[in-house]
Amino acid sequence: MANFEAYQEYQRIEDYEEDSPPGEEDLLVHVPEGLKDSWHHIKNLDNFFTRIYHFHQKNGFACMMLSEFFELVQFLFVVTFTTFLFNCVEYDILFADRAVNHTNPSVSPLDRNKITLPDAILPSQQCLDRIQDNSWIVFLLIMAAIFWIYRLIKVIFNVLSYWEIRQFYIKALKIKMDELCNVTWQEVQSRLISLQREQQMCIHKKELTELDIYHRILRFKNYTVAMVNKSLLPVHLRLPLLGDVVFLTQGLKYNFELILFWGPCSLFQNKWNLHPKYKRASNRLELARQLSRVILLAGVANLLLCPLVLVWQVLYAFFSYAEVIKREPGSLGARRWSLYGRLYLRHFNELDHELQSRLSYGYKPAAKYMNAFASPLLAVIARNVAFFSGSVLAVVISLTVYDEDVLTVQHVLTAITVLGVVITIARSFIPDEHMVWCPEQLLKCVLAHIHYMPDHWKGNANKSETRDEMAQLFQYKAVFILEELLSPIITPFVLIFLFRNKSLEIIDFFRNFTVEVVGVGDICSFAQMDIRRHGNPQWMSEGQTEASIYQQAENGKTELSLMHFTIKNPCWQPPLESSVFISHLKEKVQQDAQMGPSTQLLLSEAPLCSSLLSNDSATGPDNLLASVLAHPVLTAPGLPRRDRRILPTSTTASAAASVLASLSASQQPHIGQPFSAQSLMPSSGQRPHESHMYFSDRTMVDSDSKIHSSALMSELASAEMSLHAIYMHEVHQQNSQSQASGGPFQAPLPLRDPSDMASGTQTVHAHPGNRSVPGQLRLGGWAEVEEEEEQEVDPSNISPSKQASRSSL
């Protein structure tokens, strides 16, 4: 990773003309009187667009306000119930350590020594006296009351502001509340862009683009993703005995954002402009000292508040997870994408629901890859522990069934619970006997959905070091809970001893990588996905980028983010440099497709390849992905063929290019026969009315509902991006290996002339004997759907109505 000390010698990236279109700097737009309303010339468009997005994702006003109300009630319940348990319960009576004799004549003699629940609860006055006599409890209650009142004021403000958003949806966007769940974010966004032409919400630009909206919603998120990409945030720790670990919790992330973005001493003077003093290099040392003092104060404040936050974390974790652990002890062994993983794997300009959907698709293959590693020694121990614990549990349960009085014996229920937990934990260390050891292919399947992977993982999928690094992205839920519990203790020390040392590098980062865009404000320059400024020559941008090694985004994030945004927003018109890169990539795909297998062959191998990857999904795109990943294995030299044909050896890159070329050809409106999406769906048992046919990039014959169409298009769009990720990684690995071995480096294709770009023509490199390919290609063209669920959610099993309620991958 680049050394950020070298940033000291850089000058701030200049703002090019496309960032500030001539004539729009002082643009004042005249709006007809009839179109003026409360949504003309909105002062804080960042907040406005963010609320529109959250309103859509959280399913409208009623759901949002109900959630806010129950959050208040939940906090009040935790505080009052905890206070009651500590001050109003006689535990010596509850545990029968002290006898209770009921002298009431109405009580039966047999029941006079029986303990009832009211016997263990103190009278209200005595309970109140206990609370008042404990100054520590009184202090905690006062702090909780202050925080609850603050939350109440915030909820009231949200009710008023989101009611305005509700009116905006109904009156301006013409979307009824009962239809909101069936409207994709793509449609909401297109209506916002159309509304800008009628009512100038932003008076500095005549037209809004999809990228403008993303920039405003994700302004600070893009900065955070860039800092993680450049290893600027101190989240990598080296601990004794544990070695290298990644520590990033909600509390630590909150402090980072408070210090840098929206706190009283942050670097931004408002929500959309970096303070001018941070844009000048003359006083960078003084600014670094100021930032260091701010970080120190934040660390000390965290240290002072540590007891309060720690008490709340413990109580909230207990009330949230105690019942789940008792009911399903194995839930702690489930995995989740870590907070660091979400930032590391996130594209620039990727909304929350798009990221969540992509990670949900990748959850199952990631879990299979992590479960493929098993310790034989632990497996032997676990089998015996499970045997002994199960034997004792079976005897206790048998005795309980024979005579229920066994349950009255002290600690019998505790023993049953503990034995059940021990058995569940032991079984988690026993590997599946039917599992096929294929780590390299599983890791490629994970890459298809998460899109990012360090270079040194290639060819090392079977090593424990790779698994440990993957565990930093895909952690156990138990580890997540433990990190959150330790966060109040560790966060102050990270801020004081690690984050302070990054002050000068942070100042240089924001100066060097901030650009001002008219109508948007100051944004992270990486978020522009500009290949010329931040491209990496090793990621197919050779000859197209002027970026130094310190200005390049790591792991091909600029290139992959550009492809992702282009596919997700097919109406977006990329800048000239980005268009050149996309055209170059398409030409490279067409070139490699000539050496790849046909799509029909890949489809015929889909069932076998899905079986090899233990993929039980029945969706066409997933099966096609499995064919692309496993086809090079089936055609490897020396393997027996299923038929007598001699199939040429192919690579994963050529197989992916072949499918991408077919998808591009299917979107040509007037060339050949249209490519049927039905060929990507299961062929068995499909009814004729379930077929879908693309006649162009905008027209689709669909006899089912619009929701079903959106779900299908979303799966195909996700598959297209997955294929691009696989293809770009494979080409990157091939080029890196060629450079490392000193072999012939594959020269990049000649770039198109800008005049050709303007005319819409495209150069296609033909090869003798190769099949003809379409000349004009188009990327993307599908709407999006979100997977709201995390972890075990299988996107293929989500109902169409749920899928269509979001826009996603």
Automatic annotation (TrEMBL):
Protein's membrane topology: Multi-pass membrane protein
Regions of compositional bias (Acidic residues) in chain numbering: 784-793
TM stretches of this protein: 61-86, 136-153, 294-319, 377-400, 412-430
Annotated region described as Disordered, given as residue ranges: 732-809
The keyword Membrane is annotated on this UniProt entry: yes
Compartments it resides in: Preautophagosomal structure membrane
Keywords annotated in UniProt: Autophagy, Lipid transport, Membrane, Transmembrane, Transmembrane helix, Transport
Skewed-composition ranges (Polar residues): 794-809
Domain of life: Eukaryota
GO BP annotations, alphabetical order: autophagy of mitochondrion; lipid transport; piecemeal microautophagy of the nucleus; protein localization to phagophore assembly site; reticulophagy
Keyword Metal-binding belongs to the record: no
GO cellular component: autophagosome; phagophore assembly site membrane
Alphabetized PANTHER family for the sequence: APG9 AUTOPHAGY 9, AUTOPHAGY-RELATED PROTEIN 9B
Protein known as: Autophagy-related protein 9
Source organism per UniProt: Denticeps clupeoides (denticle herring)
Gene: ATG9B
